[in-house]
């Protein structure tokens, strides 16, 4: 009788956890899809790092040129700095870690 109560309690507990969102069901499709997911995530993050650094650099350069009434001096300078910062961020993202 005790064994049946334990199984019943475990089943009700798991059902309650699923209802309240404490436990999610395993919905993985295949090992191949799981293997590609980190690579796709890394590629998306690397692209985002590059693009965001370049956009911030161009925006700062354009703002300074607009504020100081210069031609495109700061725009070119900060676009290069933003591109360099993006490359540095991507390099930090993909470089192997030395755990010694």
General description of the model:
- The longest helix has 38 residues, at 31-68.
- The chain has helices spanning 2-19, 31-68, 73-94.
- The model has no long low-confidence stretch (mean pLDDT 85).
- The N and C termini lie far apart (55 Å).
- The protein is 78% helix and 0% strand.
- It has 100 residues and is mainly α.
- It has one domain.
- It contains three helices and no strands.
- It is elongated and about 85 Å long.
- Helix 2 packs antiparallel against helix 3.
- Keywords: Hydrogen ion transport, Ion transport, Membrane, Transmembrane, Transmembrane helix, Transport.
- A possible function for this protein is to guide the assembly of the membrane sector of the ATPase enzyme complex.
- Residues 22-31 have a biased composition (Polar residues).
- It comes from Acetobacter garciniae.
- Residues 15-35 are annotated as: Disordered.
In total, the number of strands is 0
Helix-strand category? mainly alpha
Principal-axis shape equals elongated
Unreliable residue stretches: none
Mean pLDDT value: 85
Spatial extent as radius of gyration: 26 Å
